[in-house]
Each structure stands twice: as C-alpha cells, then as structure tokens.
Amino acid sequence: MKFKSIKGTKDVLPDESYRWQFVEQKIRSVMHTFSYHEIRTPVFEETALFARGIGELTDIVGKEMYTFQDRGGTMLTLKPEMTAAVMRSYLQHNLGEQKPLVKVYYIAPMFRQEKPQAGRLRQFHQFGAEAIGGSSPFVDAEIIALSAEVYRVLGVKNFQIKINSVGCINCRPQYKEILKKHLQNVFKELSEESKQRLEQNPLRILDSKDENDQKLTTDAPLMKDHLCKECSEHFIELQSILRSLNIEFEIDGRIVRGLDYYTKTAYEIISKDLGAQDALVGGGRYDLLLKEIGGKQTPSVGFAAGIERLLLTMEKQQIFTGENIKPKVFIVSADEEGRGYAVEQAMILRRNNIPCEVDLLGRSLKSQMREADRQKVEFVIIIGGNELQKGLVIIKNMKNGIQTSIGVKDLVSHFQEPGENIETRENR
Ligand code: HAM
Prior knowledge:
- The protein is an alpha+beta fold.
- It folds into two domains: 14-171 and 227-316, Bira Bifunctional Protein, Domain 2 (BirA Bifunctional Protein, domain 2, 2-Layer Sandwich); 329-415, 3-Layer(aba) Sandwich (Rossmann fold).
- Helix content is 38%, strand content 20%.
- It contains 17 helices and 16 strands.
- Strands 1-5-6-11-10-9-7-8 form an eight-stranded mixed sheet, sandwiched between helices. It has a five-stranded mixed sheet with strand order 13-12-14-15-16, with helices on both faces.
- The longest helix is centred in the middle third of the chain and has 18 residues, at 137-154.
- It is elongated, with a radius of gyration of 28 Å.
- 38% of the residues are buried.
- Histidyl-adenosine monophosphate (HAM) binds at residues 81-83, 112, 114, 119-121, 124, 126, 128, 130, 258-259, 279-284, 286, 302-306, 308-309.
C-alpha cells in the first residue's frame, strides 16, 4: 500500500523549509516591533465556538469545517481560523484584566475543506494579529499598517490595500433591506448560490465570483453609503490616519468578507501576482464577537494572512527567501583510525557552535570529499594517517584549495576566533 499526503495538504520538504523559516522570522520580528506577543492555541476547539463565532450561515461553518466527534462524544473542529480561538482564550484566561489593549499574534496551521487549487489548500498556514479592547480607529490603522509592514519588509511589490466599512447592528439591518429590495429586481438571473444568500446574507452577493452576478450588481447600493453617524465617522477617521501614516489604500465597497463577525472596518490586501485566489490578507473589526461567545462586548480588530500565498507571491516576484543551512566544516576521515576521531572532533566543534558535518556512512575518502563538495562547505578537515599520529589535522580551504595542517587541540580556536580571517591566518 502506498500512502500519500491528503488532497489539499502539502509537505514542506527539507530543501524548502528554510524559506518558511525566513519569512516566519521576518514576521515575528515585525510583530515584535509593533509590540504584539505570540499566542498559541490548540489545533482543535469545540465545534460550537466556531459555529457561533464565525456564523452558522458562512461557507466556512456550513461546508468547510473538519468536524469530528471524539471518543467521549464531544464535537470538535480543527480550527478553520484563529480569531474565535483567540477570543476563547482571551475570555478563559481573563487577559483583558491584565491590560486594557491586548495585542497578540500567531503563526499556525488552519483547516478548511475547500476545493484545492493554486493558493487554496485544505491545510494552510496563517500569520495574523488581533488587538483586543480598543474601539478607536487608531487600532484599525495599526492593524492595517502592521499587516502591510510585513509585505514591505519582505520586499513584496504590487500589493493593494482595499478597505471598506460593513457597518454595525444599527445601520446594517436597514441597509440589508435596501440591498434586498434592489436585488429582488434581478433575482431570477442571479446564480443559485446568490439566490440562496438573498434572504439571510445578501451582502455576500456583492463579492460573488460569478461574472453574471457581478454584472447584475454593478449599481447595487453599498454599505459604505448607508452607514450610521458613528460608523461613518469611524471610517473617515481611519482613512485620515492611514493617510497620515503614508499607507496607500483604496476604498472598495464590495469587500464584505466571508465571516459574519465583522463590524465597521473590513479590509483585504490583494496581490496582482496571485491568480483567482488573490487575497493575501483579510481582516477587520469585530466588536461583537466576544459577546457572541459568552463574554462582555469588547471592541477588537485583527487580520490574518496566508503564508502559502505570501510564498507564492515572493516566488513570482523572485524575492530572496533566505538560504538553506549548510555546515561550515566537513570532517573527513582519511582511514579507519580517523573515523571515530572525526566523530569526536565534530562533537567538540558543534559544542562550540561551529556548524559541522561528518561522514557516518563509512564512505571512502574520495566520496567523503565529493559529499563535502556537494554540501558546499567552506572547509574540510582531514583526519587520519601520519598527521593524526603527530596530533595534527589537515584543513583544506575549499575556495582556493590551500591546505594547511594544525594541531588537533587548536581546531576550535582556529574556526572560532572572533574577527579572525581564516585565510589571513593560513597565509601567515
Ligand atoms: P480569511 O479571509 O478567511 O480571514 O483568511 C485570511 C487569509 O488566509 C486569506 O486572505 C488567505 O490569504 C488565507 N487563506 C484563507 N483560506 C485559505 C486556503 N484555503 N488556502 C490558503 N490560504 C487561505 C480569516 O481567517 C480571519 N480570521 C481574519 C481576521 C483576523 N479577521 C479579524 N482577525
């Protein structure tokens, strides 16, 4: 029987994992400069948390969750997103009591049973941040700035920030009625999916991927033009803060997001270098989510971004994503006697923080040298023969081929001395 990875999941292989480590390290560093602390939550939660938090009528809850019953009969779900999980954790551990504004970030795998395609997986990875406890548009602006900063720092080009306001419980119901009335005129021509959405979730019709739906809704009324005073002021202030921070954005009244918890700000960052799945980032304000899952109303805003899509974009734009680790030194043994000795010396170098590789397969001197070459090490240490009997080893500089011999006991200091140029030393 031949096992294969599950459809829509991917292995990150040893020759590409460094790219992940590179972007993850940059993400962490940007998060830390904005004073966000990492939060890690379990990979599964009670199903009800997501059903309530994300919304029963959303695609995620309705058709995409990996849900199962455990042996104790509890319904569990692999997390399809982090926001509800973060809010559960915030509530459970009273994080709000320690600080008025709790700022957290995460890098974690998510699970959604979507139809796999380029940039759309069933297990994918998100980085994201949530700022919990602030109602000011300055918090929305910080979240937008933070997400965009990651792309700027990584050198990603051609991304667009699109912002919108999806209103609140005061203005959205009235707008929904206006929108429904408008869509009633074209109901018969709408796609089946949009027809189903008309009653319960008409806003989602505005971001339908169906071309005909898009045509039919070109002159549909938009939420941003029907905001209450509070939402409207919030939206205008957010725009002026973003301008003051020199963050370019455009207003897109069709950004409605696929999760139900949003209030006021909703935004996306899009890359033109991605295909149909062009959203790098999705986020916004969700002032009612905590209340929805049993806490007290707590204004919050956040974003999440797909790491696979980030890497795809970087690949398309030929952006440097680091280098795989390689040993500085390869120790080869010239004969049988040298073998054990080589392994011991490797251990000593490693303990002294000198990245080092040694042959464990009993290969011939020639094939050990070939391996050292393949691994592109800077230096080879050759151990064995007469030299070893005299307490010496040979060091070969792989760039210029120069060989020198030094005392075994000097090996660590030879590779370690700070500021010492090894070539200078060899030529001395
Ligand atoms: P989302 O829009 O569902 O929002 O996902 C955010 C990002 O995750 C997307 O823009 C995309 O880059 C990536 N993503 C989503 N689904 C997939 C998939 N199947 N394959 C690959 N990448 C994917 C959320 O998850 C919200 N929790 C964002 C948020 C945080 N809102 C407030 N705080």
